[in-house]
Structures are given as C-alpha cells and as structure tokens.
Amino acid sequence: MSDTAAAAVPDVFAEPVKRVRAGWMTLLFLANIALWLGVYAPIQVLLPQQAELLYAAHKETVFGIVTGIGAAVALIANPAIGLLSDRTCSRFGRRHPWTIAGGAIGAAGLLVLAEAPNVVVMTIGWCLVQAGLNGMLATLMSGIADRVPVGQRAQVGGLVGIAQMLGTVLGAVVVVVMLDLAGLPLGYAACAAIVLAGAAAFVLRTPDARLPVEFRPSGRIREILADLWVSPRRHPDFAWAWACHFMINLGNAFGTLYLLFFLKDAVHYPDPDSGLLIMMGLYGVALVIGAVLAGHFSDKSGKRKPYVLGSAAIMALAALLLVIWQSWPVALVASPLLGVGFGTYMAVALAMLTQVLPAAQNRAKDLGVVNIANSLPQVVAPLLTTLILQWLGGYPGLFAASAVATLLAGVLVTRVRSVG
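-> structure tokens emitted (420 positions)
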C-alpha cells in the first residue's frame, strides 16, 4: 500500500459525528423487532410447548438441551460473522450482505422447527435460528458504532431496547394467535416471514459504506483467530463492561426463561399463556418508559454508569419480590419493575459498550464478542436452572440467583474508568 493510500483513512473507520435521521432509526428499530421476535417467540412460547408435546414428562430437560446447544452455536456465530463483515469488501457494503444472509438462515431454521418430529430436528432447527439471527444481530449492532455519534447512542440504544421488548411481546401475541388458528407450524412460519421482512427492509432502504480492498485486514487463519481475542490486560474497560453485560443478561435469563413453567407449576395460574401475555405487557410498557427516559437523560448528561447501577438495583428488587412471594399479584408488581430496570440498562449499556471498543476496524467483531455476553447466559442459565430447581430451593432459589447476578453487575460496572 502506498504512503498516500495509507494516509487516506477510509470513511468506514472514522468516528461518526453526523446525527442519524429518524428514517434510519425507524428501519433499525423495525429490523430489531423482527430479529428479537424470531428469537424470543420460540423461547417464550413455541419451544416450551413443542417440548411438552413431544416429551411431556421431561419438558424442562428437553427445553434446556435445545436452547443450551442453540446458544452455544450463537457464541460462535456472533463474533465470527462480525469478523467476516469487518473484512467484507462487497459493492453492497460490508454489513448488509451478512444481515440479509443471517435473516434468511434464521427464517430457514424456524421453518425446520415448524415440522420437527423429535428433539434432534428441534435442535438442528434452533441452531440454524441462533446462527442466522446472531449473525444479523452482529451486523445491526455494528451499524450503531459505524453511524451513530456518541452523543446520540443512548437514544438509539433505548430504541434497540424497546425493539427487543416489542419483539418479545409481539412475538408472544403473534404465536398465541397462530397457535389458536393452526398450531405450532403456523406460529413458526409467521416468525420466519417477519424476520425476513425486517432484514430486507433495513438492507434495501439504508446505506452501507464499502470497505476498500486495500484496507481489508490480513486473511491468514492464525491472524483471524488471534483477532477474536480481546486482551483484558490491554483493554480493561472493555473487559469490565463485558463482565457487567454478562451478569445482567444472566440475571435476566434466570428471571425470564422459565416464566411459562413458573406460572403453571409455582403460581398455578389457570391460564398460563394468557398470564404470560399480561406479564409481558406490563413489562413492555415499563421497559419503554425506562429506555426513553434513561436514553434522553444519559445522552444529555453524558453519564452511563449511574443508570447501570440504578437498573441493577431495580432488577434485583423485582427478583427478590418473587423470592419471597410466588403469587400472581406479586408477579404483576415484579414484571414492570423488571421492565423499567432492563429498559434503563439497555438504553445506556449499548452506548457504554460502543465507547470502550478497542479498534474502529474491528467494530463488528468486537461487538460480536460483546454479544457473547448475551448468548453465553443462554447456555449457562438452562444448565444452572435445572440444578437450582431440583437442588437449591426451586423457584425461590432461581429468583435469588437472578438478584445476585444483577447486583454483581452493578459492582462490576464501577470498575469501568473511561466512561462516566
């Protein structure tokens, strides 16, 4: 590469300074709704019901196996696809080709699940979903670091948090309606169609900067594998922020993965499907409020850590209420508390995490490493939950573990030095 070329740093590596417009944010918002609907509608409703239909006596074990293996696939797919997108020099951009490919693979996996006759096919289908949608997640999140200036990131992070909630709630609504009409296959097919529509709309209607070939990192296998490692010693703030993100997501997984079974087996609510919709509705409204307010005030003040600390305390309080009382009225109180806490966290966490990324040329890969902190709890939580439910106090023990994890996240975020 010539000295002139070396001096001319491409726009794709520049720190963004121009505020993104409402149209771009809207399309990102819709793509994230579609993505999270494709993830959480199966986790919350379809996979548990499918496990119960196929293996009623061992439904928790089957659900844990399928979701655990799928989450292990997500651990690999997210940073790997992020790394590949960092090296992509397509004329269509470096993120968009992987966004649409991820949506298509995820949709294909949902269609496999629609006809799965046993746990093996269920696992294959869910692995495809996790691989595709985690690839889509890696590229969508890197778009924020690529295009959104620091002073606008909590606002956009709040929208992403709201999209995650709406994807969860709308997914539950869609699949419950589809289940009433035609059973599991139509529920999965509806999720597949929405995932594809969200990915296509974002890719077709937003720009994506092209990486010049001369700036593509080395393609040597050893160097590519080495790039997947982010040294905690060289980048301590990234490591502490990652650990905080992991613990918040582990606490959230303990608190939400088994809600349908909690309502059925501990609360003994007569209609657990409807009960789940009510809880998610309260959770969702509170999450929107928390995300919007925290995003606005965090960007205005430039502060991130106080909001993370507050969110951890609120989420822990919600979990502790369910430790003490497993009843329907308390569940109705805990749901909005969890929502406002997680909404506050999601608004500021994405802003904080993008501010501690090690290098501009590896944004998608490094955000893929961050997203391991989303996926790894999906591997760990089902395994630990099985042990907790059987040997460590049942559902009170499970919600106590949720409280401990979120409080520990608050401790870890205090170690981040470069973000206020």
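The radius of gyration is 21 Å.
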